[in-house]
Design brief:
By secondary structure, the chain is α+β, with helices and mostly antiparallel strands. The protein has one domain (28-97). Helices cover 15% and strands 12% of the residues. It has one helix and four strands, in the order αββββ. The strands form two sheets. Strands 1-2 form a two-stranded antiparallel sheet. It has a two-stranded antiparallel sheet with strand order 3-4. The radius of gyration is 23 Å and the shape is globular.
Amino acid sequence: MRILSLMVALGFVACSGSSPAEVDADPRGPTCTKALYDLCSTEHDCTSAMCHPFMAFQVCTQACDASTPCPAPTGGGAATCDATGICKPDAPNHCHL
């Protein structure tokens, strides 16, 4: 039992000298802000209250038609008004939920 306690104590001392992982480092970008074309899980994740799944991603979107075209994504690319009258971007904004 003493040997096990000593091993645990030595392991703790050895690990305590290493620097902690960067908690806020996230390669997927900043947190989504509920903006148009941000990633979403439900309508509550969107200012527009419209979270729509497309083939490769699910994003906040809005209605569109000939008189209300889709705004361009802030990160570049394009958005089109699909056959159901919903703005579909080429890709979601660079953010995470």
